Amino acid sequence: MLNKETAYSILDLAIISNGKTLIETFDDSLALAQLADTEGYARYWLAEHHNSDAIGSSATSILIGKIAEGTERIRVGSGGIMLPNHSPLIIAEQFGTLGTLYPKRIDLGLGRAPGTDQATAKAIRSDFYQAAMSFPDEVQKIQNYFSTENASEKVRANVAEGVSVPIYILGSSQDSAHLAAKKGLPYAFASHFATAHLIKAFEIYHREFQPSKVLDKPYTLAGVNIIVADTDEDAERISTSLYTMIINLLTGKRDRMQPPVEMNAQLRGIIQQSAVQQMLKYTFIGSKETVKVGIKSFMETTQVDELIAVTNIYAAEDRMKSYKLFAEIMKELNAEVA
Question: Which family does it belong to (predicted)?
Answer without folding.
Answer: To bacterial alkanal monooxygenase alpha and beta chains.
